[in-house]
Please model this.
Amino acid sequence: MNKRQYMLKTFERQKLLNKMMASPGPYPFVIILDHLKVDFNIGKIIRSAEAFGAFGVDVVGTPFFDPMPAKGCMKRVPWTMTKTFHESYQRHLDQGYTFYAFDAEAEVGIHETNFPEKVAFVLGHEGSGFSFKKEHYPAIKFIKIPQIGMVESLNVSVAASIAMYEFARARNFQT
Model:
């Protein structure tokens, strides 16, 4: 069995455990992962989602992913697999979520944002960005994570962790 086959087999087992054991975290925010690679980032984001009390994670356009970096959290945090961004967007819009996506060119920083009750953080592929055109989704608010260094962007799992932390911090870590 090669590495990819092992990853897929482990993923399928974790998917079943998730359906039986996962329950939403105490904070009303979700993470939407738009067409990320199957390697380590999705698992790391699910691990952070468990640490920061996320309601859930929606993996968009990725058929499976490596569960190992989640370190067992895949069975505790509800996550779904969605084929298109539009499908995920519409479902969360119907549930009353306000959308925030990250853009290094945004005018408003995450630390300046007063998040409403229900938030959907949208994170795109590190190389190709979002699978959608911004103008097709005018309800999405674009914010940035201010940086001092010269690096173009943060790793997507780091950016997701900062977003989740900031949401919980803004509520003084109270549920």
Observations:
- The chain has a mean pLDDT of 94.
- DSSP finds four helices and seven strands in the chain.
